[in-house]
Amino acid sequence: MNTRTLETAFAAAIAAALIAISTVSPHAYASYASWSSAGATVYVNPANGDGLSDSAVVSALQAAMNDWNTQGASPFRFNYGGQVRDTTTGYDGRNVVLFRNENNGGTIAFTYSWWDGSNHLLDSDMIIYDPPYTFFAFDGTCDSSNGYGVYLHDLTTHEFGHMLGLNHSTEPAATMYGGYAACSTTQRSLDPDDIGGIQSLYGRSSASSPPPPSSPTNTAPSVSISSPGNNASFAQGTSISFSGSASDTQDGNLTSGLVWTSNIDGAIGSGASFSRPLSAGTHTITASVTDSGAMSGASSRTVTVVAAAPTVGSGTDPVATGGTGGTGATGGATLSARGYKVKGRQQADLSWSGLDATQTDVYRNNVRVTTTSNGGSYTDAIGSRGSGTYTYRVCEAGTSNCSNIVTVSF
Amino acid sequence: MRRGFEAFVCAFVLTAAAAAGQDRLVDLSTRAAGAQRVVLASVSDLRSALEVNAYGDQVIVSHLQLQVQETLKGPAINTISLAMEGGTVGGLTMRVSDMPTMEVGERAVFFVDPSASGEFQSHSRGLGIMKLDPSNRIVGSSLMLDDVRGIVRRAAVRGQR
Question: Which one of A290, A306, A322 terminates a domain?
């Protein structure tokens, strides 16, 4: 017997067994309680560990709620109540969906339900566990290669079934059947058994069932830079204003996620707007953003910064002003710097005091260039030729306890 | 075709779970290999209380006293204390969708691990409790207790190699 024949025979035997099970009772659904108002308002904390945008999460969950509202053909309605910041649940009269960045023994999600002695639901909360699963909000994006890809829409259609009072069904084709196969999209389509379940709790409506909705196809976000203008020129040391916006058909406004870079200075800022000087030279400034479906958009400008006469500065600003390492200051940490050239290449000697940790993070232009032992000095071999302006600060490694900022110009 | 077939078989095996949640399809032998103990036991006592779990959630927790009738994996033991979320306090009931409900006198095969509280907890949450009907059939499936015994013992033997 070849493999295909064996599989076919085995599948037929199992199918026969399933038919035998499914014919034991007239229906396979089960329930435990119902909402007396034939409706439930659901709040969502969309914060998740997979980088899905708030709007993508809310969109997927609303689609799942809509599955029951429309395909269920009953008077029951889920209503979206808005975004919240809840990170815990309980019997508080508020129905919440939240993610938890924890591995919970293989469970992808579950729903807590509370009801009274009359079997009337009082509260229901859904918790979705992130690792080892990866959640996807848009059709066609799920990665099933490792068996851990999950469409949020389908996952939550099942869980919303619990939220309205249904238990697991023994019908393998039902949305309320327990278990989820990687990247499955079958649960968004209610089975007659699921419809029987919701109608057993809330009755039937006269409206006909529309076809199941699909999640939208993802498109790339668009990015626009309003400042600086293309080919603008600035004197070195000038604080340059950067501003822009980003939008996405699926995710909406993504401006806060903009990342700004210079081909000379590296990462220079983020978000809608900021101001800062650039080192001398002709910069290609790029603002870019990535949406929840992993598609990116970008826009660029060319900016020229004209070099000033070489100077060496020692800053006195007691507070670090933004950057990767933090914004605080120790109050006692002091940094000084000296810039010079070795065979025409830029180099800076840094000296500091007042940091307590054994390791020190050294930042140049708000980018950490090294973590070194806290010996009070470090030589940064920048390596560039010609002119340039750099800001430095040092911080206790891994903390926001930082020195003042100093500027070194060549 | 082969992958699809395997998924179908896994789904079938999952009908053996009395309260399968939204879980990745984990077969019985994997559960048996992962659990520290597997016992056939009946619930001799059950007390429920409002508590706060490790995540800070307000929940009802049921504390079950299990009378062990047969140890399928792990050291032989007479009784086990098991904590599981869900239960009734006063007129208020809380249910977790991926956990079964248990009552005094009910029998099940329990896949358990020790917890920090000193009580045991079910391995793989709801998949770790397989309730039995009077004919020794796993509730909601075609599996019999003898099938589970065989799978657990084979998994235990593989784990010792």
Answer: A306
Nearest residue to A328 via CA among A375, A392, A396, A264: A396
Residue A14 lies in a domain: yes
A188 with A227, same domain: the answer is: no
| ipTM of this complex prediction, to 2 decimal places | 0.83
Q: For A181, which of B25, B97, B123 is closest by C-beta distance?
A: B25
Smallest CA-to-CA distance from A154 within A135, A127, A132, A172 is with: A135
Element (H or E) spanning A202, and its range?
Answer: helix A192-202
What would the pLDDT profile of A242-299 be if each residue is shown by its tens digit?
999 988 877 788 888 898 988 888 889 889 999 999 988 888 898 888 877 767 788 8
Q: Specify which residues A39 forms β-bridges with.
A: A77
Chain B residues in contact with A100 (beta carbon < 8 A):
55
Contact A91 B95 (CB under 8 A): no
Residue type, A132: P
Domain count, chain A: 3
Whether residue A114 sits in one domain with residue A31: yes
Chain B neighbors of A90, CB-CB under 8 A: 57-59
Mutation site, A103, A168, A175, interface B, largest B CB count within 10 A: A168
Maximum pairwise Cα distance, chain B: 52
User: Which residues have CB under 8 Å from A395's CB, separation 6+?
Assistant: A320, A325, A326, A355, A360, A361, A363, A401, A402, A403
The pair of structure tokens assigned to B143 is 């599996």
pTM of the full structure: 0.59
- In a domain, residue A315? The reply is no
Residue A367 is inside which H or E element, if any? strand A367-373
**Which residues of chain A neighbour B22 with C-beta distances below 8 Å?**
107-110, 155, 158-159, 178-180
Partners of residue B12 in chain A, C-beta under 8 Å: 14, 17-18, 172
Report CA-CA distances (Å) from A20 to A14, A170, A291, A403, B28: 10, 12, 47, 74, 22
Domain limits at A292? 222-306
The reply to whether A369 falls in a domain is yes
pLDDT of residue A316: 31
